[in-house]
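Feature request, filed as a ticket because there's no other form

It would be nice if the structure record came with a short human-readable summary line next to the tokens. Right now we just get the raw output. Example of a typical job, pasted below so the devs can see what we mean:
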Amino acid sequence: MARILIAEDDELTLELLEKVLRREGHEVHGVADGQAAIDELRKGDVDLVLTDVQMTRASGMEVLDEVRRRSPEV
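Raw output as currently delivered:
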């Protein structure tokens, strides 16, 4: 299944998304802020990124900028 990175600063929302996606068989890694998401993206490949837009340390738009740098075809 897919390797999914979730960046969400609301703990309850993050927990719910992780639970649902894991139940569907996906490998899920959740982080609580944008910089942590960027750090995870730099560590390795993910198939899908779900990100909140307004987060601490880095915004969701900055996370997407990192996705674009890593995948020029996006």
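Something like this underneath would help us a lot:
Residues 11-23 form the longest helix (13 residues).
The two ends are 21 Å apart (CA to CA).
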